[in-house]
Amino acid sequence: MRNSLLFRCRSLYDQLDRFLDGEMGLWEHLLVKGHLMMCPQCRVYLRQYSQIRTLSLQQQQEQLPPDFEQVMGPIVARWKSEQNS
Ligand SMILES: [Zn+2]
Predict the structure, then answer these.
(1) Residue 4 has pLDDT above 60, yes or no
(2) What pLDDT does 67 receive?
(3) Ligand 1 centre and the CA of 68: distance in Å?
(4) Dihedral angle sign, alpha carbons of residues 52, 57, 30, 27
(5) Ligand 1 centroid from CA 82, angstroms
(6) Total count of domains within the chain
(7) How far is the CA of 19 from the centre of ligand 1 (A)?
(8) Predicted TM-score (pTM) of this structure
(9) Coil, helix or strand for 58?
(10) Mean pLDDT of 45-51
(11) Cα–Cα distance between 34 and 30 in angstroms, integer?
């Protein structure tokens, strides 16, 4: 029964980012889902991991300076006009 988990928990941990970002192929995605169905340990890990990920994504956004758009706007505009010329 253990061997029918298809791959080990550790290799699943390495794939979680791609799983959560939806960057996996269908077959890979199904393998992960299948493992999660059979492995309560990984279900708990996935839940905790996605919570931490959400938190750190929010923090990254909050760390942007309030004048980020003002600073970046002209730079992006110049870059675009250089690309066009
Ligand atoms: Zn597992």
Answers:
(1) no
(2) 79
(3) 41
(4) negative
(5) 50
(6) 1
(7) 14
(8) 0.60
(9) helix
(10) 93
(11) 6
